[in-house]
Amino acid sequence: MNAIDSVRDVLTRNMRQSGIVIAFVVIVAIFAVLHPSFLSPGNLTNIVLQYSYILILAIGMVMIIVAGQIDLSVGSVVALTGAVSAVVVIRNGMPWWVGVLAALFVGLLVGMWQGFWVAYVGIPGFIVTLAGMLIFRGLTFLVLDNASLSPFGGTYYNIANGFLNGLFGGYGFDVFTLVIFAIGVAGYAVSQWRSRRGKIAYQQQVESMPLFVTKLVVVAAVVMWFGYQLSISRGLPIVLIILAVLIIAYALVTQNSVFGRHVYAVGGNRHAAELSGVKVKRVNFWIFVNMGVLASVAGVVYSSRMNGAQPGAGNMFELDAIAACFIGGASTTGGVGRVGGAVIGGLIMAVMSNGMQLMGVPQSTQQVVKGLVLLLAVAFDIWNKRRASVVR
Question: What parts of the sequence cross the membrane (predicted)?
Fold first, then answer.
């Protein structure tokens, strides 16, 4: 293989992942040109606050999809867990953390309920979670007695609306926010360097050092610019910290743990996974338990953002989460998908929604655009598989 072929191979080996990043950059650039305030500090902060719960759902959903399953109930679980928190905190006057724990416990029970039917009874996840979507929505109405509950106020309200700022002082910008982002950039650089060294040790192809350094510099510049925009607005959103912890944790679990490898094995070839000793039923059970817990986290964040609970909360959230995963590179047949890709897919959905809202695009048109983007993403997945099979 000559030098040109090596470069081409490195650039195209992960076309799905690199392509979605390029698409994200293009979409951001388009809205930045069409609406001057799109990249303003205030609007960037609003994007983080308004769409964080979709990204949380996408983190769990990508594991479900990688395993070859689907979960249609997460929107209803968001509503139910938010309702439970509201009843505990608002109606019964309990501390905010009791409401959070109650929501997480309900999410755990929901995940165990659905995981049992999928893993040990053998009912397809589509059917189980379709039933769950109806069951948990009905339970939400019962818990709230068909009425909204508000406001939370206090610490609970700050979960999705609060900011950390002023801890290190400020000079027209929040120093603490920039320090946190700088630590994140340093951590990313170290992880990429270790990954590169690992590939070299196993004699795998890597990009040239100049290209590697350029990639790190570009990522660092973009991340620090984003951090600066937040620092001159209201500081570091608390919900962004929660989201960052979840992304890092689940990226490590899916890529560097035995359980993560088992999830990919089950989605890639269930029969082969069973023959290899993978406990398929156990894997399917725990991915639904995990999804239930993450849906409850999203329920807490959403109810905090709305400062209350409504019977209709979380409507269509499951479709946004599923769309984020497929747009981010997950395969419709399972076995393929990454947490990072799902997050980027979710950001694309968030950017499109926010940008179209700023431009005054009707809600009906927004739904059409989102549907077309999802259709194109899945079409690209199918085309890419056919192209790969022809090459082989």
Answer: 20-38, 50-67, 72-90, 96-113, 120-143, 163-190, 211-228, 234-253, 283-302
Q: Are 345 and 325 in contact (CB under 8 A)?
A: yes
SS3 236: strand
Cα–chain center distance at 92: 32
DSSP run (H or E) holding 342 = helix 339-358
Angle at which helix 238-256 crosses helix 339-358, to 10 degrees, equals 150
Look-up: residue for tokens 């905090």? Answer: 304
Calpha distance 263→279 (Å, rounded): 10
Decide if 337 contacts 190 (C-beta within 8 A). Answer: no
Q: Indicate the CATH number for domain 3-165+234-385.
A: 1.10.3470
Task: Tell me the CA distances in angstroms from 150 to 163, 238, 303, one per residue in order.
Answer: 21, 21, 9
d(CA 78, CA 4): 50
Task: Tell me which residue of 286, 219, 228, 257 sits closest to 69, measured CA to CA.
Answer: 286
**CA dist., res. 136 & res. 296, Å (int):** 12
**Contact yes or no for 329/21 (Cβ under 8 A):** no
Confirm if 82 and 301 have CB atoms less than 8 A apart.
no
Place of tokens 């416990």: 105
CA distances 371 to 116, 310, 317, 352, 378, Å, are: 32, 26, 14, 12, 11
Q: Please, how many CA atoms are within 13 Å of residue 56, restricted to the half-sphere of its CB?
A: 29
Cα 120 from Cα 304, distance rounded (Å) = 35
Q: What is d(CA 118, CA 287) in angstroms, rounded to the nearest whole number?
A: 10
354 residue type, one letter: N
Residue with tokens 């999802």: 374
In 3-state terms the chain splits into helix, strand, coil percentages (rounded to 5) of 75, 0, 20
Q: What is the mean pLDDT of each run of 10 residues along the chain (392 residues)?
A: 48 58 86 90 91 94 95 96 96 94 97 97 95 96 93 92 80 87 92 88 82 90 93 92 94 93 93 92 96 97 94 91 90 88 92 91 88 81 68 55
Please give the Cα distance from 388 to 392 (Å, whole number): 6
Strands 163-164 and 236-237: antiparallel
The DSSP code for 202 is T
CA distance linking residue 356 with residue 35, whole number of Å: 10
Residue 149 backbone phi and psi in degrees, to 5: -125, 130
CB 288 within 8 A of CB 107: no
